[in-house]
Design goal:
Mean pLDDT: 94
Shape: globular
Order of helices and strands: EEEEEHEEEEEEHEHEHEHEHEEHEHE
Largest sheet: 7 strands, mixed
CATH topology of the largest domain: Metallo-beta-lactamase, Chain A
């Protein structure tokens, strides 16, 4: 094992490069060979030649990219190992969005686990997070919310939103894939009397979730006449860019569904709706403590406080972004 990390996994500008397997994990743009954790655009770029991902991830990517979702798409179920150039790869549920996976890598007696984006809080709306159940030499963990100690409880956050709106119809900006389906289900379950409208861009993903066994509940495509008939008792889910076009609107109670606290201070919004599909700092540290890896390398976010906490747990930790790797012939 290298002083920091494993010599056969390297962080490059393009992403994580698995040297002996000659493949990328969640590359930043199209590559020859990619193993993909989930279908969000910052992890699954268009234009790859060959991709390996779970069946729901490929379904979501096809809905977004069509033929650009990979020239050759390999659909691999959870817990079914496969080999790429001598590296054994296994997908394990990550709890983030439908089909999201942690990626377990085994090579010459060493084992690495790449978390991808993961979530272990209440009320997930996909296959819940599972732990690998074996020794991990290197855990590569996301740290998106490494500076946020805890997200709000989803049900409590939704109830707060309804109270804050005080009878006004709610206009909620939300990512079209993953969070929109989860939010639809939350409103359906806890406020069944409230009419739910969704933007047309969300419809293909709602249908994919339903076919995969995660029914978002009762909803309708937004139509002005139906919204008027609802007499203010509705929530309308829109992509973030659509929300920005309502900057001068005073009829709706406008929020962005996000774990990012920066949306608290946007003058065009009326309130904040704390809803995240990422692990918060407490959940990341619980995940690390339960896995007890030999080392942790952090990517994607704010690792500083997490590194200190890992060191207090006697687990060596570092930012993988700062490790100097030797040049390689890619």
């Amino acid at each position: 094992m290298a002083a920091e990390g494993l010599s056969w996994i390297q962080k490059k500008k393009q992403g994580l490069w698995v040297v002996p397997g000659r493949f990328w994990l969640d590359p930043g743009s199209g590559v020859d060979l990619a193993v993909i954790s989930h279908a969000h655009a910052d992890h699954f770029p268009p234009g790859c030649d060959t991709v390996y991902a779970t069946p729901p991830t490929l379904s979501l990517a096809l809905a977004r990219y069509s033929s650009r979702a990979g020239k050759k798409r390999n659909s691999i179920p959870f817990h079914q190992p496969f080999s790429l150039n001598g590296v054994q790869v296994t997908f394990i549920p990550a709890g983030h969005v439908l089909g999201s996976a942690q990626i377990l890598l085994e090579y010459q007696g060493e084992t690495a686990l790449y978390s991808g984006d993961f979530y272990r809080g209440p009320l997930p709306f996909c296959q819940p997070l599972e732990l690998p159940g074996q020794k991990i030499d290197l855990l590569i963990s996301e740290s998106t919310f490494g500076k946020k100690e805890a997200h709000a409880d989803p049900e409590a956050s939704l109830r707060d939103l309804i109270t804050q709106a005080n009878g006004r119809p709610i206009l909620a900006g939300t990512y079209v894939m993953g969070k929109a389906q989860r939010l639809t289900r939350l409103v359906h379950d806890f406020f069944p009397e409230m009419k739910i409208f969704i933007h047309k861009e969300m419809l293909p993903y709602h249908r994919i979730y339903a076919r995969a066994g995660f029914d978002p509940g009762t909803y309708s495509l937004y139509r002005r006449g139906e919204a008027k008939a609802a007499k203010g008792k509705f929530i309308y889910l829109v992509p973030p860019r659509i929300l920005s076009s309502y900057a001068r609107d005073i009829f709706h109670y406008k929020v962005m569904a996000s774990g990012w606290e920066k949306f608290l201070v946007l003058p065009t919004l009326d309130g904040h709706f704390d809803l995240s599909d990422h692990a918060d700092a407490q959940q990341i540290l619980q995940y690390i403590e339960e896995i007890r890896p030999a080392q942790v390398g952090f990517v994607h976010g704010y690792p500083e406080d997490l590194i200190s906490a890992c060191q207090a747990m006697k687990i060596p930790a570092f930012s993988l972004e700062k490790v100097k790797f030797p040049p390689s012939n890619l």
